[in-house]
Design brief:
Blueprint (H helix, E strand, L loop, with lengths): L1 H24 L2 E19 L3 E19 L7 E16 L5 E18 L4 E18 L7 E21 L2 E18 L7 H6 L7 E5 L6 E11 L2 E16 L2 E21 L4
Antiparallel strand pairs: 1-2, 1-11, 2-3, 3-4, 4-5, 5-6, 6-7, 7-8, 7-9, 9-10, 10-11
Length: 271
């Protein structure tokens, strides 16, 4: 377990080191930045807090930064993707409610496979950091559960460009799947103060993979111009779920997004 955790940490540090090296090497590069806001619906289950599912509306924000690199003759792109959401949910009986705040940062390096002038495919590894909390207003004991996990996974993008009456459009689909990671989790009924004084904290750090964390994030977006501005509308399907320490949890979210995209070049003024 310790070797697996150490290996994941070393791989994460290597990806961050590559990012730093790329930033120091690039003097002139294409950058795409997007900010989206959305509203959707979420379904929460955390058996540490309650055996019941909680559903309700959510608000979500997404920030994306994508740029070309010099890796592999300029065929690799680096994508930084941050998103956060808050939700207020109720159980089916209407006898309890939960508040949640969840955040995710994703760093991916994707090799470009141009199929033709319209279609481009990208694929590569990604680093996925997640954190947040769920608060159950009904519980007097153990009312809150923290969320913290990190994954190494695979990321793929399909981009299709087309025109309508000489106006450029871009349809894009992205899929992120975690493959290997570690997750913090209390044991069933274990108070947080007990974890703070326990010498056996290793039980609360769990190895995760497809067998106990079958999760996926999907993004479908459409970019189109409005005068001098590029508008982006989209849909997010965020399915996060796990079964560790005999506890089940999931956060299933569906959200409609809208925002703006900026395209520009970064130039080093000192060179």
């Amino acid at each position: 377990m310790k070797r697996t955790l150490l290996s994941i940490i070393l791989l994460c540090l290597c990806m961050l080191k590559v990012q730093a090296q790329e930033d120091s090497l690039q003097n002139h590069r294409y950058v795409m930045r997007a900010t989206l806001y959305g509203i959707g619906h979420t379904n929460l289950l955390d058996t540490y807090l309650s055996p019941m599912e909680y559903t309700g509306p959510e608000l979500r924000i997404l920030r994306e930064n994508m740029r070309k690199t010099k890796l592999m003759d300029g065929n690799v792109s680096r994508q930084s993707l941050f998103q956060a959401n808050v939700s207020m949910t109720e159980n089916k009986a209407g006898s309890g409610s939960e508040f949640s705040f969840l955040a995710n940062w994703n760093l991916a390096y994707q090799y470009q496979f141009p199929i033709n002038e319209q279609l481009t495919l990208l694929a590569g590894p990604n680093l996925d950091l997640n954190g947040g909390m769920i608060y159950n207003f009904r519980n007097s004991n153990n009312p809150v559960n923290a969320k913290a996990y990190v994954n190494l996974g695979a990321s793929g993008i399909a981009m299709y460009r087309f025109h309508i009456k000489e106006h450029p459009f871009m349809l894009r689909y992205q899929l992120n799947v975690p493959l290997l990671g570690v997750m913090f989790s209390p044991e069933y009924g274990q108070p947080y103060y007990e974890m703070s004084i326990s010498k056996d904290f290793g039980k609360n750090i769990c190895f995760t993979s497809l067998h106990n964390q079958p999760s996926v994030r999907q993004f479908l977006t459409l970019d189109f111009p409005i005068k001098s501005t590029t508008l982006r509308v989209g849909y997010i399907c965020d399915i996060q779920q796990a079964k560790v320490n005999e506890l089940k949890s999931h956060a299933w979210s569906h959200a409609l997004m809208i925002g703006f995209v900026k395209h520009f070049q970064l130039v080093n003024p000192y060179k």
